[in-house]
Amino acid sequence: MKIIIISMLLGICWARKLQIREAGPTYVCSHCQPEQIHIAFGEKVNDIVVTWSTFNDTQESRVQYGVGIMDKEAIGSSKLFIDGGKLMRSQYIHTVTLKDLKFNTRYVYHAGSVYGWSEEFSFHTPPAGEDWPVRAAIYGDMGNKNAHSLSYLQDEAQRNHFDMVLHVGDFAYDMDSNNALVGDEFMRQIQPLAAIVPYMTCPGNHEQAYNFSNYGARFTMPGPDSTLFYSFDLGPVHFVSISTEVYYFTHYGLKLIVNQYNWLREDLAKANLPENRRRRPWLVVMGHRPMYCSESNDIDCSCEYTRTGLLGVYGLEPLLMEFGVDLVIWAHEHSYERTWPLYDNKVYNGSYDKPYVNPGAPVHIITGSAGCKEGRDHFLNDEPKWSAFRSQDFGYTKFKAFNTTHIYMEQVSVDLHGRVIDSMWLVKNKTVHFTNTHF
Ligand SMILES: *[C@@H]1O[C@H](CO)[C@@H](O)[C@H](O)[C@H]1NC(C)=O
Ligand SMILES: *[C@@H]1O[C@H](CO)[C@@H](O)[C@H](O)[C@H]1NC(C)=O
Ligand SMILES: *[C@@H]1O[C@H](CO)[C@@H](O)[C@H](O)[C@H]1NC(C)=O
Ligand SMILES: *[C@@H]1O[C@H](CO)[C@@H](O)[C@H](O)[C@H]1NC(C)=O
Ligand SMILES: *[C@@H]1O[C@H](CO)[C@@H](O)[C@H](O)[C@H]1NC(C)=O
Ligand SMILES: [Fe+2]
Predict the structure, then answer these.
(1) Purple acid phosphatase C-terminal domain location, by residue (predicted)?
(2) For residue 353, which atom of ligand 3 is closest to its CA?
């Protein structure tokens, strides 16, 4: 009884405290309404970072949240972001981290300040540990116009089909276009999914303006170098996100190539330590420009730099092989393509006559057909030997890591109103990985 009374009193005090804070706007602010709300995993996957924009300075950044009711509050900060265009349009980009959330729990939240609050959203935190099936929507190259997959993604996200989204570079076309108005519009278009499912990203070539400043400011990814690279663990999978663009926009610094290479080597080596790999056997890497593709557009498809490096040094493919990366996900080509297990242009099919059972090399997926104003890309007539399936349909990829031995992926065609046009089971039932065996 005592405990009930005390907790009621505490509850009343807490409610009063929130009320008092709520009550004090000192002026009416015209451009303080939060918009472009989206979430991402923080330093741990039970930390959720909420990011949003206001056009005037609200002087505070708050998220009220909780289980069922919004009885907690977290305070963050905002940064003035000035686009590099002629008008130098400015906005305040707010980030608040909700730390140490309960696993496997639905939270409600709203974001804002005393000058204005967003509508209420909810998200579901991931279960603890490794033993649960991770579900993701994966795609790249989605613009603010001609975004064929957008409504499907919004719908599926709201039906709780995804634990996260991986957007593999190339946003909005482009976020900095029209003095970054295009970026604002795009961020509003993805809000119906990105405010409720962690929206994890990597940079593409369309983000390069002003040293990737729109990308860096608008998305809050984990880690100190998150505009370039980061990694996180989710269920039985270690996910890694890299920037392939450091190999192409070299005027932003050749050193970035070296930094990323060294970081990736260290990150993969750690994930591949026997005690880590046993608990979390899947390694998945995403980056924007593919190492392999069979587009007919030569310029677009000559993506050898990330594979073999600049002048033969700092190529990333040997790292994928050395540390037994299971799956590599790319975009950039406005199409979908799946490869056989592949290393150095050679196919390493798996055992039992099944290419994807204990494969001898990484499998590559290129999924850049979400839809953008540049339309579809075309394939070479001769399909390379390493290519297993390809399609020009607009659509997106669905990923499910069932457990430590089975990953399932499928490709949804939006042209065919949501029909699955390709699927793959990646199976690994040996404890050894293909590390070094094929060099
Ligand atoms: C408020 O935002 C508007 C629209 O972006 C801008 O024109 C104005 O300068 C801002 N005012 C302040 C005080 O920041
Ligand atoms: C571009 O941004 C990266 C960080 O994202 C930074 O390390 C690099 O020095 C910048 N390059 C230039 C030329 O400003
Ligand atoms: C790999 O497996 C696929 C499907 O069975 C087959 O078509 C292809 O020829 C195989 N490639 C090699 C090099 O064994
Ligand atoms: C993993 O998931 C697959 C697909 O549901 C299932 O067939 C398999 O038995 C599972 N393996 C383990 C070890 O749970
Ligand atoms: C691994 O999977 C293959 C194909 O499904 C199966 O034939 C084989 O018996 C499995 N091996 C072990 C050790 O489970
Ligand atoms: Fe691209």
Answers:
(1) 361-423
(2) 5
Q: In the chain, which segments carry CATH 2.60.40.380?
A: 35-124
Axis crossing angle, helix 177-194 with helix 209-218, rounded to the nearest 10: 30
- Which residue among 353, 357, 404 has the greatest number of ligand 5 atoms within 8 angstroms of its CB, and so is best to mutate? 357
Lay out the sheet containing 406-413: strands in order across.
199-201, 164-167, 134-139, 395-401, 406-413, 419-427
Q: Specify the DSSP class assigned to residue 44.
A: S
- Expressed in angstroms and rounded, the spacing between residue 80 Cα and the centre of ligand 1 is 12
Q: What is the pLDDT of residues 409-422, one digit of tens each?
A: 999 999 999 999 99
* Of 169, 221, 165, nearest in space to 195 by CA: 165
Half-sphere exposure of 8 (CA within 13 A, CB side): 5
Fold classification of 134-427 (topology level): Purple Acid Phosphatase; chain A, domain 2 (3.60.21)
Burial tier of 154 (Cβ tally within 10 Å: 0-12, 13-18, 19+): middle
Average pLDDT over residues 41-64: 98
Contact predicate 167/139, CB 8 Å? yes
Answer for the pair 428, 405: CB distance below 8 angstroms, yes or no. Answer: yes
Task: For residue 187, give the H/E element and its range.
Answer: helix 177-194
Nearest ligand 4 atom to alpha carbon 402: 2
Ligand with minimal distance to 357 CA: 5
- Cα Rg of the chain, angstroms: 22
- Verify whether ligand 3 is closer than 6 Å to residue 153 (CB atom): no
Q: Sign of the C-alpha dihedral, residues 197, 200, 205, 206?
A: positive
- Predicted local distance difference test score (pLDDT) of residue 159: 98
Higher pLDDT, 238 or 18: 238
Helix-strand-coil percent breakdown of the chain, rounded to 5? 25, 30, 45
Name the residue of 132, 135, 405, 408 whose CB sits within 8 Å of the most ligand 4 atoms, as the mutation to test its pocket. Answer: 405
Atom 2, ligand 2: which residue's CA is nearest? 211
Considering every ligand atom shown, identify the ligand nearest to the alpha carbon of residue 338 and give its number: 3
Residue of 339, 340, 357, 426 to mutate, ligand 3, most atoms within 8 A of C-beta = 340
Token representation of residue 79: 């940064």
E strand or H helix at 61: none
State the pLDDT at residue 19.
44
Q: Which two structure tokens, joined as six digits, stand for 176? A: 């900095």
Q: How far, in Å, is the centroid of ligand 1 from the Cα of 81?
A: 13
